[in-house]
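Re: the request from the purification team.
They wanted to know what the chain is likely to look like in 3D before they choose a buffer screen. I agreed to run a prediction and write the result into the notebook, where they can find it.
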Amino acid sequence: MKSPIRVVIVGRPNVGKSTLFNRLFGKRRALVHDEPGVTRDRLEEKTQWWMHRVTFPVLLVDTGGVGGDRFAAEIEQQVKIAVEQADLVLFVLDSTAGVTPLDEDLLRELNRSGVIKKTPVFAVVNKVDDELHEDRIAEFFSLGLDEVLTLSAEHGRGIDDLKWKILERFEDRGTPVLNEAPEVTDEVEPRIKIPRIAIVGKPNVGKSTLLNAILGENRMITSPIAGTTVDAIDSLADLSGKPYLFVDTAGIRRKSKTEAGIEVLSVVQTRKALEKADVAILVLDGEEGLADQDEKIGGLIEDVGCSVILMMNKWDTQRKNPGFTQELAAEKIREKMAYLKYAPILFTSAIRGQGLEKLGELIDEIIHQRQLKIPTHDFTEWVRKESTIHNPMNAKFFLCHQSGRNPPTFVCHVNDPDKVHFSLRRHFVNALRERWGYMGSPVRLLFIEAKNRKSLPRKKKTRRNSPKVAV
């Protein structure tokens, strides 16, 4: 497969970079808000564009606004890394504001770093809502960039023209689309699914630092300021020779402390990331200990049905407290988060890169156990056997089967669901884990009313009328 065209979007805050990113990507992926400085980390997504029956792989990169008030140095470093790797740079400007001193500063930096000499840079004049606004763009031609294009990212005007201008520069990266359907054979290489891992937790527990430690680079902006990460950022990492897609998410605060607007959108993004994830890593603060918010986030993970690893980060801060061992800490976690007792616990120091050696193996084992499919006959016989051990209300079980694997879900047909005592449900789940595992994954047991087929009245057989024969 040909390498994707790496298109990097840069500009000062609040010129519409994330809105343009979403238009080019074709989905609402980046957070968009009137508040300047929403985007901070690099957001990268792969997509495909088409031109003249040729398909082009494209990697879009959204960056933070240069020249903002918050995380200015960190954002500039992320932008610098992004443009150095770019095949093409989109320099986004605001038609309503004209060329501002911040725009000129960014242009000088692109010149000074040599980006403009080696990489095509397009001036993308945004917020040109109709042809009457075209007269606003005359001053943008004075910037001396490769192309000057006008568009309205919010309304979708000029997006197709921008795509065509980009693809014309990289015609060699395209792959012709065949008119005929490809021949179907038995020897089709299966598509490898890369495990998707969501990193979640309350603010300032070290989620971004953890991802940087896994990646071995400063991919995410980190800061003691709570709420540094506001969008869900995907990053491909390699653990023990295998690829994993890690998703860094915004810290979830209590509802009473969640500010309206961007922070609410961040929580929505985090929930979406959990719904699409194979495994969630719930990061806990080893210095401050467990908080009520940790329990609520754990409950959200369990509710979504995602597999989970509990990671006690900043464990190196407990060196001054030698009597507080990992065993004691794990016991306290189990007491407070009993509903996640199936989750394995890791003790790490992300800032020191400690405790992450077996993370890949643990993720693989959780996914392997989650994908286990129990045959219907075996599961039915197992339920009937276990119901003879503990069944205080004498519930009668008939057909039992597994109905899903994400999360592992089982349906049991019983004469009366009300007779399935809560202690019997607990016994089933505990015995099920002891027998088949399902480490790290929630287990759903559903009980529905049904009658034993043997007790159902048999249908009367109706005789068919024999055909009349003419004599």
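For the purification team: The first strand starts at residue 5 and ends at 10.
Please add any questions underneath this entry.
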